[in-house]
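Final report, Chapter 2: Outcomes

The project's central promise was a pipeline that accepts a single protein chain and returns its three-dimensional structure in a standardized token representation, suitable for archiving and comparison. That pipeline is now operational. To close this chapter, we reproduce one record exactly as it appears in the project archive, with the input sequence first and the structure output second.
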Amino acid sequence: MTKKLSEAQVSQYREEGFVAPVDAFTGAQAAGYRARLEALEAKLGGRITGNLMFKPHLYQTWIDEIVHSSEVLDPVEDVIGPDILLVQLTIWIKEANTDAFISWHQDATYFGLDPLEHVTAWVALSEASEESGCVEVLPGSHKRGQARHKVEFQPGNMLKTGQTIDISDYEGTPTLMPLRPGQLSLHHTQLLHNSRPNRSTDRRIGLGISYIPAHVRSTSGVPLSATLVRGEDRYGYFQHDARPQVDCGELEMRRHAEAMARWNEGRKVITERLSKSATG
């Protein structure tokens, strides 16, 4: 028995590598979360940048609320099982009428996880439409395994490492995953995906939440941390992150900085590995 997804949706995830849209929060709830995010931006004096873009659930209670919610975890459990760790979270914002984009890539390239059972839950806090640059996927591409990425540093690419894939060698038709505020999508870590520039008059705001089953480990050799959000961790591959009690508290910010220091150290290992295997 599934908790949220239908059997057909679970089958689609297995066969095509994604499911969208999935109803999670109401439009009013999404608007409330967006207001909290924009209040954080106002407090910081501008856009959220640098390390603060990552693992914000460690210093913002409302994001911690989202990542622990049954609205998100029930569909995630339907595809990866009941023992769930949150290993990373990224705030993705494309400003209105800008050239920011994300090149074709696989999430697995950057995470260094084994086995490759990582799922990304992409939660929309604003309209994610074709016009605003919603996520676009290549159905079934996850079945071909890890692809070799080349490096092309292009202005506007939100993937700062410049990794990209030429999809001309792949069969299938790219499929857009538009979401209304409060909806989410799920995609497999090896699914090829990208997103185009935001040509709308509103910001495109989303949370990319990276969940893994507890039996997945990091191959970087660095002792990374993760948040146990559901079930049990009988493996101990990751140090467990503590949940925030207040927004931007001194303790919360210190814990976040420590977790990000470990993450960046592990990411450096993975990036160096990529640089040796990349072509172009």
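Archive annotation: Helices lie at 7-16, 27-44, 61-68, 70-80, 108-111, 250-277.
This record, like all others produced under the grant, will remain available to the consortium after the project formally closes.
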